[in-house]
Design a protein that fits this description.
By secondary structure, the protein is an alpha/beta fold. It contains eight helices and 33 strands. The strands form eight sheets. Strands 21-22-23-24-25-28-30-31 form an eight-stranded parallel beta barrel, surrounded by five helices. It has a six-stranded antiparallel β-sheet with strand order 3-2-4-9-6-7, with no helix packed on it. Strands 1-10-5-8 form a four-stranded antiparallel β-sheet, with no helix packed on it. Strand 30 (about 510-515), helix 7 (about 530-545) and strand 31 form a beta-alpha-beta unit.
């Protein structure tokens, strides 16, 4: 037995070294801005899958992993050869999509699923090819034609693998291992209040670019102006100075700039006659960025957002954010929202509420959502899942949070709709947490100084009916976000009528959450929990309180639509849904919907 254990230890050590060496050979590519606007080969559709709860596809013998691991899609060389998997005979799942809602066996599943997709491809000269994945929850490893390409941690941000050298003329295949197991060092960590949907949950495509290309750029309106455009562009793999040209054809504008030796060019020019983007008039311009033999076209809106005292200014004028919070949950069907149709439905409901603002909780939503917000004129709070109690003492957790923050900003820094980057939700007030979040705030400001920073806080001090927004994190934020649940998790709805608020930081505040569960169609007295009447009554009392908060500059009640949560098992009422939605999961509007709709109608009329 001792000899057997020693042999097993040597095999596992060798396997670990093999995986480490293989992984080291492939470096993750920097994220490409505006991948959807490039030349692409769409890889959405049916992918063959193998459910692998023990990760057998990796942790076999060294010889087997070298010759015929799952990622190699190996075939038996003789009838006597043992291979215990076959993608060609396996089931399929639709990509993009989560596995939980597509296969009843996987409803609660947390573990590994292997995905495989075959495709034809003809390489082109002087072109580079990246495999772009919009999101894979939570850990992903990618192989192309059996060769390791890259890996990624984080379930809600995109990543690119450079795969041009791994592709063959004609038939090719990609294998992606996705694992959604929660872990203490993850972002989010072990406990959340939303469904842990696993899989390739967003679009997958091959992206083609020239050998050198415009990899990243930022085109913004300079704060305090109405016609001064500023920003920068970055050419990949620059060898010496490059030439960058920016055009706005509708305005008959064309300006050229030289990069430095690293390939970065600073951009600044006047744009007389520019129509500003706003919720009332969401004007977008086609902007062209050309350089190093590459050209990118993107629809961009121009607006400014800043804070002056306790006001939030949009295009230099005070704005009240009439909002609602949204989870990335698909309307009318179960599962993760991922399509343009899903986003249009959710944002249309917000529009019907008379919203000009949505908080996209608690992670970056899919790119369709933020692009639609640009088109539909909806201001956006975008957030990374530093949620509840992540491990604020673990440097790897901080590194993961920084990575996700950077990927969120890189993907969406040119979206006019996004005005707030949020670094956290409901985190405990400790010195370690404060240092952790200060690091993130500093990175957000360095990567994008044109927007405001916020976080949803709940560690406020309440004494004798007065709430003091005194979380020490408030000193570092541009806008204070506060979650409170008077009448649901504490006290009674009518307690809100006499609750006062103070703000030692003298900054604008958004009431980022409040609400109550109600099952659509369940009726009763106003003090009967889970009825529409209870939720409606709570909203009326909240609005009474909100009218009296002098520094309130926005609100995003919890939540637009009922969504799945494993923390909500109450049979016959919740059935694994958080029922705080103003709309049911199949689009039925509850009574509180119309209370908020009327309040927002009156607020909009005050402008």
């Amino acid at each position: 037995m001792h000899l057997l254990l020693c042999c097993m230890k040597r095999v596992l050590t060798a396997l670990s070294l093999l995986i480490t060496v293989t992984t080291a050979l492939a470096q993750n590519a920097p994220l490409i801005t505006d991948s959807v606007g490039r030349q692409t080969l769409n890889l959405n559709g049916e992918w063959k899958i193998i459910i692998d709860p023990y990760d057998s596809g990796l942790f076999t013998s060294r010889n087997q992993i070298q010759r015929n691991g799952y990622f190699r899609n190996a075939k038996p060389q003789s009838p006597s050869e043992l291979i215990e998997y076959d993608f060609d005979k396996s089931e399929s799942l639709w990509v993009p999509g989560d596995w939980n809602s597509q296969d009843p066996r996987l409803f609660f599943y947390e573990g590994t699923v292997w995905y495989k997709r075959s495709f034809d491809y003809q390489p082109k000269p002087n072109m580079r090819v990246f495999l772009h994945t919009g999101a894979a929850n939570y850990m992903a490893r990618v192989w192309v034609n059996g060769e390791f390409a890259c890996d990624h941690e984080g379930g809600f941000t995109p990543f690119d693998c450079e795969v041009g050298k791994l592709l063959h003329p004609g038939s090719n295949f990609a294998v992606i291992q996705v694992n959604n197991q929660r872990k203490r060092s993850g972002v989010p960590a072990l406990s959340t209040d939303w469904w842990n949907y696993g899989g390739l949950t967003r679009d997958v495509a091959l992206v083609e670019v020239p050998t050198k290309f415009v990899q990243d750029y930022s085109i913004q309106l300079k704060r305090g102006t109405t016609d001064q455009i500023v920003g920068w562009a970055q050419v990949s793999d620059a060898e010496g100075r490059q030439h960058i040209t920016v055009r706005i054809p509708e305005l008959k504008l064309e300006r050229s700039f030289d990069t430095d030796e690293s390939g970065r060019a600073d951009i600044a020019f006047s744009a007389i006659g520019l129509q500003l983007w706003s919720p009332e008039s969401p004007k977008l311009y086609e902007v062209e960025i050309e350089g190093a033999g590459d050209q990118v076209r993107e629809q961009i809106g121009f607006r400014t957002v800043e804070v002056r005292g306790q006001d939030i200014l949009l295009n230099g004028k005070p704005v009240f954010l009439r909002g609602v919070t949204i989870h990335e949950e698909a309307p009318f069907r179960s599962g993760r929202a991922y399509s343009e149709k899903d986003g249009a439905t959710l944002l249309s409901w917000a529009k019907e509420l008379n919203c000009n603002f949505v908080r996209l909780a608690h992670y970056p939503h899919n790119e369709h959502m933020t692009r639609l917000a640009d088109q539909m004129g909806m201001l956006v709070w975008s957030e990374i899942p530093v949620y509840w109690v992540v491990d604020f003492t673990d440097p790897t957790t901080l590194a993961t949070a920084k990575q996700q923050l950077s990927e969120m900003i890189t993907r969406d820094r040119n979206r006019a709709s996004i005005v707030l980057w949020s670094v956290a939700n409901e985190t405990p007030s400790t010195p370690e947490r404060l240092a952790f979040l200060r690091d993130l705030i500093a990175i957000a400001r360095r990567l994008d100084p044109s927007r405001l920073t916020t976080a949803a806080m709940n560690t406020v001090h309440m004494e004798r009916g007065t709430i003091a927004v005194d979380d020490p994190l408030g000193a570092d934020l541009d806008v204070l976000g506060v979650n409170e649940y008077i009448g649901w998790y504490s006290g009674k709805p009518e307690d809100a009528d006499t609750t006062k608020w103070t703000n030692p930081y003298r900054k604008p505040m958004i009431l980022s959450e409040f609400g109550a569960d109600a099952k659509y169609g369940l009726h009763g007295a106003i003090d009967q929990r889970f009825t529409e009447e209870y939720q409606e009554n709570l909203y009326r009392h909240q609005i009474t309180m909100l009218r009296e908060i002098p520094f309130l500059r926005g609100m995003s009640p919890w939540i637009l639509m009922d969504f799945r949560s494993p923390r909500r098992p109450l049979a016959g009422i919740q059935d694994f849904y958080n029922r705080k939605g103003l709309v049911s999961e199949i689009g039925e509007k509850k009574k509180a919907f119309f209370v908020l709709q009327e309040f927002y109608r009156a607020k909009a009329a005050q402008r």
